Amino acid sequence: MTLARTPVVARLAELAKLGAYEAGIDRGLFTAAEHEARRTFAGWARAAGFALSQDRAGNLFARREGRGDHPPIVIGSHLDTVRTGGAYDGAYGVVAALCALEVIATAGTVTEHPLEAVAWAGEEGSRFPMGCLGSGTYAGLNTLAEIDALVGDDGMGFADARRSPSGLLPDVPVRDAFPRPAACLELHIEQGPIMERAGARLGVVTAIAGQGRHEVEIVGEPGHAGTVPMIVRHDAFSAVAEIALALESRALVLGECVVTVGHVVVEPNQTNIVPGSVVFRVDARSVDDERVERLDAELRDECARVQIQRGVTATIKPLERRRAVPMDARLREAVEAAIRPLGVRTMDVPSGAGHDTMCVATVAPAAMIFVPSQGGRSHVGEEYTKPEDLELGVEALMQSIVAVDRLLSKGS
Ligand code: HGY
Ligand code: MN
Ligand code: MN
């Protein structure tokens, strides 16, 4: 089957310049770089003749009308990145959605359902302390008032950020009400090693892992690094180290789960001062929610233990809890049938990474498609997926959109 030629690779290269620096790409929600990325997407969508709109959370929609009066099939991902992001995590799914709609339009195919290519806002939570901020608001999992109350790591509130010059796009109509979508599709890089090891070029996602995220403050006693005897210390960082290692051992014993302490702020953070306090964040995940609960319980137990044994105080603040989300069985079947004629090795694959689809799936049937990540690496500047895999993914997405539209039209 010859793949439709699309500008997916060139467009990703263009977006990759926005927020680029020596460690990768840093494109937090409502920063100048991320604003420019949404503006660029809007320019491509306008040139393709799609109708643009946005909501107050920053989600951006490029719509192509369908034949019937139905809710849309939404197809998208995110343009924001982690602080050391790569060129493909999120951006690929946004650009591919637009390219897929352009291929469908160029072929003169009129789907029954309207199609909306979407840039979901703030999926990474790298500026504001909430992941899937835009898709979660769209799905009604959090309110605009709740996200407006968020304060970014740079001290600016979300409400101010979205009204700032790098906030919402000034020339795109704002929509406040949305019908529940008919279905949700997302194309994404795998961000792990499974597909590459199996030699698979396309992955049909089975489920998206659940996540439990907490912020913990440990308060001990600062002191002179040279004079305070070890046995009388209340070293806040040593307490954190014990907790982190206990969580790691627990995850290894439990299996089929992961836990990460990736954010640690030590105070006063000076070589010759015993750490007085530490704020750290825990990210626990599994496709089995029971395992996430077990890791959350381990965190609570370890905090209780260090309080007694180390004479520190531990305060745990839940940040977010997203339950594991199985993909819709009928949509998965439609996607599998749609990509089979492409004649490449495909496989079922779980997603350890979180995605906007885990939120939108709470209001519509959802499916995800993966393409391989070289070396399984992501959330690093070296993130890479081969151009031929990027192009194959767009074809798979386009075929899946048409197949899902046909499936859902049978029911209407
Ligand atoms: O953390 C995640 O899994 C996603 O990249 N936000
Ligand atoms: Mn990511
Ligand atoms: Mn992502």
What does this structure look like?
The chain has 412 residues and is α+β, with helices and mostly antiparallel strands. The chain folds into two domains: 8-209 and 324-411, Zn peptidases (Aminopeptidase); 210-322, Alpha-Beta Plaits (2-Layer Sandwich), CATH 3.30.70. 35% of the residues lie in helices and 24% in strands. The chain is built from twelve helices and 17 strands. It has helices at 8-16, 32-47, 91-106, 133-138, 144-148, 158-163, 194-198, 236-254, 289-310, 329-339, 357-360, 387-411, and strands at residues 20-21, 24-25, 51-54, 60-64, 73-78, 115-120, 183-189, 202-208, 210-219, 223-224, 258-267, 273-274, 277-286, 313-322, 325-326, 346-351, 366-371. The strands form four sheets. Strands 3, 4, 5, 6, 7, 8, 15, 16 and 17 form a nine-stranded mixed beta sheet that branches. Strands 11-13-9-14 form a four-stranded antiparallel beta sheet, covered by helices on one side. Helix 1 (8-16) runs antiparallel to helix 3, helix 3 (91-106) crosses helix 12 (387-411) and helix 8 (236-254) packs antiparallel against helix 9. The radius of gyration is 22 Å and the shape is globular. The two termini are 31 Å apart. The relative contact order is 0.18. The model has no long low-confidence stretch (mean pLDDT 97). One manganese (II) ion (MN) is lined by residues 78, 89-90, 123, 188, 355.
**What is the rounded Rg?**
22 Å
Strand content: 15-25%
Could you give the count of β-strands?
A: 17
Instruction: List the ions, cofactors and other small molecules found in this model.
Output: (2S)-amino(hydroxy)ethanoic acid, manganese (II) ion
Q: Please state the average pLDDT score.
A: 97
Q: How much helix, percentage-wise, in residues? A: 25-40%
> What is the CATH architecture assignment of the largest domain?
3-Layer(aba) Sandwich
CATH homologous superfamily classification of the largest domain = Zn peptidases
Q: Low-confidence spans: pLDDT under 50, at least 5 residues?
A: none
CATH-assigned fold name of the largest domain: Aminopeptidase
Number of helices: 12
Order of helices and strands: HEEHEEEHEHHHEHEEEHEEEHEEHEHEH
The assigned structural class equals: alpha+beta
| Distance, first to last CA | 31 Å
Whole-number count of domains: 2
The main β sheet shows up as: 9 strands, mixed
Which shape, going by the Cα principal axes? globular
